[in-house]
Fold these 2 entries.
Entry 1:
Amino acid sequence: MKYVLSIFIGIIFTTLFGVFVAHAQNYTPLAPLPLGEGGTPLTTYTISSYLGGMLKLLIALGAGVSILVAIIGGTQYVAAGIAPSAKQDAKERILNALIGLTLVLTSYLILNSINPGLVQFNFSLPPIGTSPMATTTPIVAEPWPDDASERAQLASKNIMVTGTKTSTTCKTIWEKGCTSVYQLGSGAISGLLSLKDSCLSCAIVVTGGTEYWSHSVNTAHRPGNSVVDIDNGSSALNQKIRSGTSLGVQSSCSSLGVAYRLTGPGAGLYVDEGNHWHVCY
């Protein structure tokens, strides 16, 4: 019975903390938090990304420590020989380790029920000593094709395309501060056009297109893909997107923020990445 209270308190704490994280996913910090997609400053984590990561680390550490303590207790039990007190101490250590492991596994189940994205582990790292894009394109300032045709299609509905520092398109590969929609997927173009038709008051500005070198290592921002970043400065646009179904943090489009699914005009996944919407059509 002396362990019942500890277990009960642990479960209550885990549940309340999980609910807090779930609500925090809709919170946007007043100032961007450092680091972002692929460890670059180009995008920012939301508060939910930090809390979710902290929960994952605590669960992993708790399970690891519990197993280690159980192994130590087992070793002490075997080495105790015929000493009753030493064996009793070893038994208590093993029991405490099993209780701790039970708490960790219970916490995992509770958090997975609240939001599966909170317990998704990803330990993949980019290769050391190689360029992030070395397997696809060499780092040279090669000419980048013109995107006038794609821009014209978007401009027909007053959809703007702008870079971080300039409104001009990208002229060369690895050029900084520019945005290109060259060979942007037809799904993205039609999705943006229909989104604008369904929300005439929405100011839609594309801030990220197919300029893959300005994004993360395994980015989907590439010619042929229907993935774009759009500015979140329009309150009408934000209201329109948040009227969709909230899916919480998930990984099918981006795990850097809360995802909303829109159906009908502009159908797609819209992920709140803090300073912009990352959209997968």
Entry 2:
Amino acid sequence: MVYKILMKKELGSSRTLFEMELDMPLIAKKARAGNFIITRINEKGERIPLTVADYNREKGTITIVFQVVGKTTKLLSTLEKGDFLLDVVGPLGNEIHLKKYDYPVVIIGGGVGIAPCYPQAKELKETGNKVISIIGARSSDLLFWREKMKQVSDELIICTDDGTEGKKGVVTEPLKELLKREPLSLVISIGPLIMMKFVALTTNGYEGLPKVKTMVSLNTIMIDGTGMCGGCRFSTIDGKIYFACVDGHMVDFDNLLKRAKRFMAQEKESIERYEHECKAVEKLKMGGLI
């Protein structure tokens, strides 16, 4: 079974961020905040996990957002409305545990991690919680979904590293201000590993600030997404091993940051080979040889 792309558009002005709406009625029927899918573009393609950024049960669609960082995401970015994905598995992972909290919930999205923050904020808001959202990126051209996040948040704070929009600085700065301002029930952080690491450190009693339960979403390398392959394994601070696709435990971020770099050489070689092949085909076309 193949899955049709119903909509594709660029996000921001970086030309590296894309949003797609996919025709997946069975997956849309069950999708919840916190879920992800694993997709393969063609028969020779690798399997990659992509978080469910939104879903519409009536239309039977799910929305994904991705950033071009390697060969597979670059190839995915060349597909257009009307094209198809070869196969998709989902929804996978653990859905958000919803309840009404006594104090506000803070949701922090960094870069492409803003997208999976949206359904979490939406479902928590619908449950009656006060939601404070912080979204950040290196610069304004990597920010997106400002209005969508504003609609599901009681308060929206925007940060950029270079100060091109909102507060200048990293997302932990407004988080510290919130921790000083009022009691918080929960912090949810989704984005680059280094960002999530420092969010977790900040909410763990940093410089005498109050401790707050913090949850993060790990986007690790995955193959099957059901806890069998072991590719997404991570270690906890007490040395135990778990799988990001099905488990939730205290994360040893230093160890995970090292593991995240283990295939960098292969990823670089793959994208260089892909771009070389694309350029070679273009030269043949220009020369009228194909």
